[in-house]
Design goal:
Layout lengths: L3 E2 L2 H21 L6 E7 L3 H17 L2 E7 L5 H13 L5 E4 L9 H7 L11 H8 L8 H12 L8 E5 L6 H11 L2 E5 L6 H5 L4 E4 L17 E4 L3 E2 L5 E2 L4 H5 L4 E2 L6 H16 L14
Parallel strand pairs: 1-11, 2-3, 2-4, 5-6, 5-7, 7-8, 8-11
Antiparallel strand pairs: 9-10
This protein binds nicotinamide-adenine-dinucleotide.
The site of nicotinamide-adenine-dinucleotide has 25 residues, from helix 10.
Length: about 290
């Protein structure tokens, strides 16, 4: 078997085109464009690239992005004061605080200050709690982007064993909740899991979000599985590596995401979608991609 590729770039482009059309239509009706405040603290090169990509994506679809680039030595109180101001700013529908933050800042404390209705990353405890209760509002971008990719390939969830490797607040945990809502039986593995291969071998749906190149060996993959590789690590030669031994896994899986070009573009597309939702462009609690 040679797995088919799940083309995140193409699916994200489709979603972005749909978002662009929605914004155009609302502007014709006299509504102002959605506004996204983007906050970058410091000069971390990877974060700077992510922020640039997100702002470019906003521009492509007609979202107005308002950029706040703050010095790395900013005090926690100053950052919190900015968040409070953005919470009250009527032109700002969404607030994106790029992580990680410098050491002197308690990221949880700051994230807690973001108005949950403007929490377009879906990181706020309120939004994660809503997801845990099967009543999601703004959903974490990467896990929800993965669900859209899985829907795109008509993945079956009910009765399937989904195994997630990685249990972070921004990927692994909300991913587990999404797959649970979809009806899968879910196992979450993490750094303290004994015998990772034992669990991976059982996965009908495997999502790996660790950030260690090729930690998942191709021979562990169940025949016919769907493999989603969230991990991105830059190797010394500058190339990008996923968590999964791609070529070997491809021989066993039915579907697999490439790195890059798999999950990453979907994360950005969902951020745009969440901004539309925060701006009240999408009224229903159902998603309007027609995919879920
Ligand atoms: P994190 O460091 O917060 O979490 C990593 C998780 O992996 C932890 O739960 C840890 O317990 C687990 N882990 C570590 N070693 C392990 C091992 N040997 N066996 C099993 N589990 C192990 O990372 P994160 O923020 O969740 O990101 C994970 C990866 O996903 C990174 O490479 C990151 O760059 C990437 N990422 C990609 C996107 C995207 O849009 N493509 C978005 C977010 C994160």
């Amino acid at each position: 078997m040679t797995a088919q590729l799940i083309d995140g770039k193409a699916v994200a482009a489709e979603l972005k085109a749909h978002i662009r059309e929605q914004i155009k239509a609302k502007i014709m009706e006299g509504k102002r464009p959605p506004g996204l405040a983007v906050i970058l603290v410091g000069e971390d090169p990877a974060s700077s690239i992510y922020v640039r990509n997100k702002r470019e994506a906003c521009e492509q679809v007609g979202i107005h992005s308002i950029y706040h680039h703050l010095s790395a030595d900013i005090k926690e109180e100053e950052l919190i004061a900015l968040i409070h101001a953005l919470n009250h700013d009527k032109k700002v529908d969404g607030i994106l605080l790029q992580l990680p933050l410098p050491r002197q800042i308690d990221a949880n404390k700051v994230l807690d200050c973001i108005d949950p209705q403007k929490d377009v990353d879906g990181f706020h405890a309120y939004n994660l709690g809503r997801l845990a209760q099967r009543r999601p509002l703004l959903r974490s971008c990467t896990p929800y982007g993965i669900m859209l990719l899985l829907d795109h390939i008509h993945q079956q969830y009910k009765g399937k064993h989904a195994v997630i490797v990685g249990a972070s607040n921004i990927v692994g945990r909300p991913m587990a909740l999404e797959l649970l809502i979809a009806g899968s039986t879910v196992t979450v593995c993490h750094r303290f899991t004994h015998d990772l291969p034992y669990f991976v071998r059982q996965a009908d749906i495997l999502v790996s979000a660790v950030g260690k190149p090729e930690i998942i060996k191709g021979e562990w993959i169940k025949e016919g599985a769907t493999v989603v590789d969230v991990g991105i690590t830059r190797r010394e030669d500058g190339s990008l590596a996923g968590d999964v031994e791609f070529e070997a896994a491809r021989k066993r899986a039915a579907w697999i995401t490439p790195v890059p070009g798999g999950v990453g573009p979907m994360t950005v597309a969902v951020l745009l979608h969440n901004t539309l939702r925060a701006a009240g462009y999408i009224n229903s609690h159902q998603d309007d991609f027609g995919l879920r």
